[in-house]
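Students often ask why we bother encoding 3D structure as a string. The short answer is that it lets us treat folding as translation between two languages. Here is a chain of 144 residues written in the first language.
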Amino acid sequence: MDMMDLTKIAKNSSYEISVNVSSNILIITFLGLWDKTSQLEYYLEDIMIAIDKLTPGFNAIVDLTLYKGSTSEFIHLHVEAQTLALTAGLNKTAVILRDNPMLKVTIEFIFKQSGAQATYFNSFQTAEHWLSLLCSPQSLNSKI
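And here it is in the second language, the structure alphabet:
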């Protein structure tokens, strides 16, 4: 994926949302701890703006390497965002999560609630590589 093709949708102290329209990928980076002091009032709106720039069948990369988790009152935002993405045609989700078992349990709960499925990776590069293999002509030919 060419980082030059990224369009930044939103950036604040709680999250960054970008899209790569040419690769049809949504990229979300979660930051810090989501609590009552977090900047989340436009999160779902920002997700919709990003999704509207993509076409059905888009993939997502969710980077949790700088995320500390969420207080329970904000879990529903993650579920709602995933539900919006699924409704808009989300295909595959690559989640970047380093050794954090407690956060993984929370993330798995969120994915179960929304019905989305996640594949976990330790780095952005491996997640990106996995998605590129899924979208390669050889991969498409093997599905025929």
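Translate back mentally: The helical segments are 43-52, 75-87, 101-114, 124-134, 137-142. Keep this in mind for the problem set.
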